[in-house]
Amino acid sequence: MDNCWDPKIECMPRYELEKIQGQRLKNMVEHVYKNVPFYRNKLNKAGIKPSDIKDLEDLYKLPFTSKADLRDNYPYGLFAVPMSDIVRIHASSGTSGYPTVVGYTKKDIADWTDMVARAISAAGGHQNSVMQVAYGYGLFTGGLGLHYGAELVGASVIPASGGNTKRQVQLLQDFGSSILACTPSYALYIAETLKDMGVDIKTLSLKAGIFGAEPWTESMRKEIEKRLNIKAYDIYGLSEIYGPGVGYECCAQNGMHICEDKIIAEVIDTDTLQPVPDGQYGELVFTTITKEGLPLLRYRTRDICKITREKCSCGRTMMRMGKTRGRSDDMLIIRGVNLFPTQIESALMEIGLVEPQYLIEVERVGILDELTVKVEISTENFSDEIRQLEEIRNTIFKSIQETTGLHANVQLIESKMLTRSEGKAIRVIDKRNLAA
Ligand code: DLL
Known about the structure:
Layout: H1 7-10, H2 14-35, H3 37-45, H4 67-72, E1 88-92, E2 100-104, H5 106-122, E3 130-133, H6 141-153, E4 156-158, H7 165-174, E5 179-182, H8 184-196, E6 208-212, H9 218-228, E7 231-238, E8 241-249, E9 256-258, E10 263-268, E11 282-288, E12 299-305, E13 307-308, E14 320-321, E15 326-327, E16 332-334, E17 337-339, H10 341-351, E18 354-365, E19 368-377, H11 386-404, E20 409-413, E21 428-430
Parallel strand pairs: 3-4, 3-5, 5-6, 6-7, 18-21, 19-20
Antiparallel strand pairs: 1-2, 7-8, 8-9, 9-14, 10-11, 11-12, 12-15, 13-14, 16-17, 18-19
Helix pairs in contact: 2-3, 5-6, 7-8, 8-9, 9-10, 10-11
The site of 5'-O-[hydroxy(phenylacetyl)phosphoryl]adenosine (DLL) has 21 residues, from helix 6, strand 7, strand 8 and strand 12.
């Protein structure tokens, strides 16, 4: 099979996969019960003994783990091996309080690297690829995660890290990068800089992009593919569960395959905490089944998405997750209406009159929430005529209303006025003091 790193695993019959998952789950529960006091207490409290977990069906007996549990045990409290076995530490900066700290053994790094190698292969990467990694290197898992995977595939890796966008362009030109790995918002910024520098895209060797770490819509994918003249593949992951490569897109570009031989995925209803049927939106929950350093049982990601177990046209059998709507904590509630920033992105991009650069601001005026959407107008559509701009503003207003049911103040902004992102884009400024 083309572009498949490990066909034996990635295309394994599901009944075989589920048998392996059950066995690994059993071992994992024994591992955490023995080595992590937090889990031992939690399982004891729930009246569960490791011997109660015999196969995959028993997953539902297990308690959930939350981000707060990681924070409460900061920094190393949930590690299941002595520090002498930990060879790498990453962390993700939370919006408040302590960062979430994660640790990996040598085997964890090898497993993670293997997952990323699957993602890179699925995006067409191989030993003749030149891969420019423009995710940040450091505590963030993006840079090193993609880097190790690319080396395993045998590609020539350019560890560019994020930022210094003109130099990124120079690397693309001079080093002949065929794959670019960065956030989708940074890919757009790079595309814009290429244009500003007068580089003809056709002179580049770029073929594919591996973009993730933040939510992005189908319309954004089309825009990036057009601007960079490449195929853009989505990659999903979170530091708590290894990092990038938990899910990755194949040539079908129709959902991200989850590495189910290493992770059990569920989608649950956030109110009842019960699993929802495939195809319905809910919160993604992961259980690591091969991880040594920081194993997690039923970890609630807060990412809202849906899954399918249907066989993919690419031949892989691993379940696929759709594009996430975003995190439940990124969801805004405006005048009682739930709103994900990605819905605004879709509404803006569908009409095609504006740049894919926007910022959502929410404030409370009196007792009412005010939603403002600032969006850059493309140079071609920029006009000195107020009437023409007013028409565009109206079209955007209607598009947002149709998609979200909300009335937004639409502010058209001149091109390049909004801050560009070199990593994860900030799409929302919420000025309401909701905690007060
Ligand atoms: O963002 C890991 C990563 C690096 C993924 C590079 C892909 C590429 P964290 O910083 O811990 O890890 O953030 C994890 O980012 O729970 C999602 O909310 C969001 N996220 C990650 N990938 C995607 C994606 C990395 N493809 C959090 N689509 C996750 C939507 C994503 N959201």
